[in-house]
């Protein structure tokens, strides 16, 4: 019996995003998709990136809370509400902040389309059967200009419900 759905949900979301990246015309086609945090010399090393299970900050990559399953039985299944932190980033060598925000919005929008029912042929709100459903909830935009150029990132949460 699974202890938590967090691990399967992260794997399912990664699988969905990586498969969609290969679809012709996908907005994720030129996006580097990472499993959790990676060591980068600079945000500009990979201009368009999607991090599944990473926020770039020292906060949890995912979390969950469990309760007794149906009818409050303590020996049967459990219900779990959980979250996966993700980050979409876009960087360029120019100062066009609007273009960076638009690209980040496109990346997050692609993930949202993947977790919505019947939006794309590849949509799967169950993340490969690891959860009952999921959705994007909280979003936080950060942007900056440096001597290297414009940078924007959107931290967002994929929230899920599972039965264990």
Summarize the structure in short:
With 164 residues, this protein is an alpha+beta fold. It has two helices and six strands. It has one domain: STM4215-like (2-Layer Sandwich), CATH 3.30.2000.
Architecture overview:
With 164 residues, the protein is an alpha+beta fold. The chain has a single domain, classed as STM4215-like (2-Layer Sandwich), CATH 3.30.2000. 21% of the residues lie in helices and 36% in strands. The chain has helices spanning 6-21, 97-115, and strands spanning 32-35, 48-52, 62-68, 78-91, 133-146, 149-163. Strands 1, 2, 3, 4, 5 and 6 form a six-stranded mixed beta sheet that branches. A hairpin with a 2-residue loop joins strand 5 and strand 6 (149-163). The chain is elongated. The mean pLDDT is 89. Residues 52-67 have a biased composition (Low complexity). Residues 50-80 are annotated as: Disordered.
How many DSSP helices?
A: 2
How far from one another are the termini?
A: 7 Å
Helix vs. strand class: alpha+beta
Radius of gyration: 17 Å
CATH C-level name: Alpha Beta
* DSSP, total strands: 6
Overall 3D shape = elongated
Q: What is the CATH architecture term?
A: 2-Layer Sandwich
What is the percentage of strand-forming residues? Answer: 35-45%
What's the story with the biggest beta sheet? Answer: 6 strands, mixed
Number of discrete domains:
1
CATH topology: STM4215-like
**Share of helix, binned:** 10-25%
Q: Low-confidence parts, pLDDT < 50 over ≥5 residues?
A: none
Run of helices and strands: HEEEEHEE
Mean pLDDT: 89
């Amino acid at each position: 019996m699974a202890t938590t759905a967090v691990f399967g949900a992260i794997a399912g979301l990664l699988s969905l995003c990586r498969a969609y990246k290969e679809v012709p015309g996908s907005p994720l086609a030129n996006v580097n998709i990472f499993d959790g945090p990676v060591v980068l010399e600079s945000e500009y090393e990979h201009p368009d990136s999607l991090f599944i299970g990473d926020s770039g900050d020292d906060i949890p990559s995912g979390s969950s809370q469990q309760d007794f399953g149906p009818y409050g039985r303590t020996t049967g299944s459990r219900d779990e509400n959980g979250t996966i932190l993700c980050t979409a980033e876009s960087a360029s060598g120019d100062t066009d902040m609007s273009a960076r925000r638009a690209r980040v919005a496109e990346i997050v929008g692609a993930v949202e389309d993947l977790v919505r029912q019947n939006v794309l042929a590849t949509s799967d709100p169950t993340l490969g059967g690891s959860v009952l459903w999921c959705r994007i909830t909280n979003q936080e935009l950060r942007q900056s200009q440096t001597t290297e150029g414009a940078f924007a990132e959107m931290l967002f949460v994929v929230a899920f419900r599972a039965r264990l």
